[in-house]
Amino acid sequence: MSRTEIWQDQKTPALAIVARGDQIKTIIPNNKYTVQSQSKPENYYTIHHYQENKWVCNCIHHQATKRNCIHILSVKFQQSLKETKDTVFEASIKCDKCNSADIVKNGKRKNKSGVINRYLCKECGYRFTDNDGFKKRRSNPEKIALALDLYFRGLSVRKVAEHFQQVYNLHISHMTVYRWIYNYSKLASKWMDKQNTPTGKTWHIDETMLKVDGEFRYLWNVLDSESRYLLATHVSKHRGIKDAQQPIKKAKKATSDRPKEVLTDGLRTYPKAIVKELGRRDVKGHWGFWNPHKRVQSIKAKESNNRIERFHGTEKERTKVMRGFDQEHGCANLMEGFRVHYNLVKNHQALGCTPSEATGKLGIDGFRWLNIIQNAKNKSFI
Q: Distance between CA atoms of 74 and 82, rounded to whole angstroms?
């Protein structure tokens, strides 16, 4: 195996270095850092930051390839996390009881999350605290959103919990982290699907396999060809017609647009499932339905399913470090969270922006996961 092949998957080990909390030391802020070697803990590599995009490390990989190594990536990840931690996030606050916006500050209270503001509603006289969509959670909103961000970028729930212990001295169990991810993935995906995202004329549908509770399941995906927006995911035990219909039904709820063509592989259930969900009567008045389904002949054909096949590679980068899911329902919920991360948080390499920004419908600034959850709680942009 060549040296470049060994270093192909750099993102996950770089995030793991950040999560440990004590591997990176700042010598000169924004200029010079040291990172502990993962194979030889007694050694340290020196990273210099000369300009905005000029990073240099004295490790063998960087010296040979001149590309960003895991040590440079870990420092960049740590810097971005610090920036989001120091950012001030504001959201419109309304009364929990009467939903009035006519409120005033009414002191502060202190709990395990820190100091939080209290408010008085001038309409009904109700006093409440601003929960920012994180009501009755042990930690503050930024840390919960950070847990989701780290998890969907490749860390396990145990490594996320270890990160909070090392960096924030916050002792939480990995199951607490899991519950954060489970609950807010569901909240965020429901909000995202209410935005009625526009799509192009071509959709791609394909299925891949993953392991759930020791058994293989089928993971279905529906992808918009033009924007790469992931319209729907669905987990099933079989590949029958009804199973193939479910992701299409979910995609129809995420957008009011309907495709002129749907590209799939040769699975025999696709034509019937697609005509049932997306077919319509022949415009010429003949009996029967017009079916937008098109079977892809080969990967070299002019119309191919390569885009969704490429997406499966991105998806498996996340699922392979999960080492199988415990329950089918939990698996489906976490994949909904990944769909939010893919559409609204992660910049697409080919597009240079997120798929949601490519649709022209929705762009999330700042610490995206935090703003997504706050918007979902306040039902913004709907």
A: 12
